[in-house]
Every structure is written in C-alpha cells, then in structure tokens.
Amino acid sequence: MIFTSGSTGVPKGVAVTHRSAAAFVDAEAGLFLRDEPIGTGDRVLAGLSVAFDASCEEMWLAWRNGACLVPAPRSLVRSGADLGPWLIAHGITVVSTVPTLAALWPEDALERVRLVIFGGEACPPDLVARIVAREREVWNTYGPTEATVVACAALLGGEALVRIGLPLDGWNLAVVDKSGHRVAEGEVGELIIGGVGLARYLDAEKDAEKYAPHAELGWDRAYRSGDLVRFEEAGLVFMGRADDQVKLGGRRIELGEVDAALQSLRGVAGGAAVVQTTPAGNHVLVGYIALTTTDAATFDRSLAMDRLREELPAALVPLLAIVDELPTRTSGKVDRAALP
C-alpha cells in the first residue's frame, strides 16, 4: 500500500495486490537485458525514496533476479557530484531513476552500468543521447501507482523522439477521445489503462470513480490516467497532463507541451514551465532549464529561443531562465512550486 498525491496534492491510498506485483516483476524480467538477464552478478542501485513507488522497481528488480540491492545515501544521489566514483566503487550495474536526477550525474557515473531505466517524468532526448551506449540498455517507462508502477516501456536508441512505448505483458492500453472512442494513428487522447496491473483505491467512492467500467472498450474495469498521449503503433508518445493546464491572458496553456519543447533543446538536461507573477501583478510564462555540464559554457540562448518559436505557438513561448538545477520533490520529480 502506498499513498500518492498525484497531480492534486491530496494523498490517496492505493493498494496493489500480490497478483499485480508478481505480474509486474515477471513482465519486467522478460523485458530487460534479454540476451544477458539480470542475475547474481548484478548490483542494483537503491537511490529512490521508499515513499516513491519506483523504489519498488529497484527492490524487485534485484530480488526477483537474485541480484544485490545496494542503498546509496540520498544526499549523494540528489547532488550527483560524487556519485560517479561511488557507483564505480560499489560495482553498480543496474539503475532505475528519474531523468531530473540522472541529469545531475557526471558522465562517468554510469561507466559500469548495463541497464538504465527512466520513469516518473518526461525524459529529455539530450540526456538519452548522452548515456546510450552499445553495451548499455536504456529504457523509458511510464505508469502511475494505480497501475502498479509501470504500464508501458520503450527501448531507447538516442532518437530525437523519446517514446513511453508499448504495454507490459498483461497490461492493456487504449488512447481515447472525449467521447471514449479510440483515436486514430497520430492523434492525441487520454490514456486508459486496463489489465492485470490495476490496483485499487482504499476510498471506495474514489475507486468506483477512477476504476469504472469502460463501455466503449468493453473493459469491466479501467483506469483513467488523466494523461494525454499521442497514439502511434511504434509506441505511445507522452504529451502532458489533461489537468496540467493554466490560464494566461485568457488562454488555456498545457504546461506539458512547453516542458517537452524545453527538454528538446540542445544542451538541456531538464526543463519545466511555470506561470509566475511579476511585482506589478502581471502573469508571465517562464521556462526554467538546467544545462548539461558539457554545454553550460557554449549554450546559445538566442538559438534556443528561435527553436522554441519554431516548436510552439506564440502564446506558449516562455521567457527563458537558466538555473543550476531544477528543484525536486521526494520522488525526484520536478517541484514547480519551488522554482524561483
């Protein structure tokens, strides 16, 4: 059982059954490193807070496959500066983390790591390109606690488009429009999750609301994720939260769309958009970016703004602010409220 705040900030108790947990563990065991599966010779980093459901992935990856789970000091994981020598000294070969934290780590931190799993938030293409290597698998995963940690995954190869991929074995995914009908190839809709991974809310009323039957899909139980994705046969593409919208100048703005544009900029390790209020009371859209260590000195702000103008409608182009690092919550995800 885990309490998750989700996007509302109100804790919700979620109970994951043994059946769902076992299905998740087995699905991932058949997914990662198929040619040379995780085994007794591997050492898995335990760097995430146990209050974050992704920490279960760290523990279960190790224990399901007979590998060694190696806890790291939280301060070390969050700062990143001294993590490289620590990972090498402790022989870490498997890492599951969030992109915001990984972006802080020096390039040699993953020298001996043969499997990297990202999840919890959108993954910048530049970060993927930096750590993809011939002898290393890099995966991007997606899934809410309500669907047992991970619902789908994509093997990454350094392409500009970072997908969240296809469903795990036993999970069902559908992308639907506002009427509940499946969308066509290339269209955006809400992601609906079904299958063996569905958990339940401790609050019966909340459970009935969020896990209601879906008549159009023919599912007895379906979880409405509230996340927008683009449907592509090659793998789903995350587009942002359906409820992660703010009003600016009378227009609704999807922050996830701006986040994605910021994270696609060359030399950017992580990015997040926030509507801030000026001393005069005006609302402005600000895009905060943290740069990779190798690109900090050569980053071209003017070129970045030109790229944003190409990618975004005029009303969504943010003011650009460069920060040393993006503030994070306990889960490692970006804390928008803490941005300056």
Automatic annotation (TrEMBL):
GO cellular component: cytoplasm
All residue ranges annotated as the AMP-dependent synthetase/ligase domain in the record: 1-200
Superkingdom of origin organism: Bacteria
SUPFAM superfamilies, per the entry: Acetyl-CoA synthetase-like
Pfam families assigned to the protein according to its UniProt record, in alphabetical order: AMP-binding
GO terms for MF: phosphopantetheine binding
Protein name, UniProt field: AMP-dependent synthetase/ligase domain-containing protein
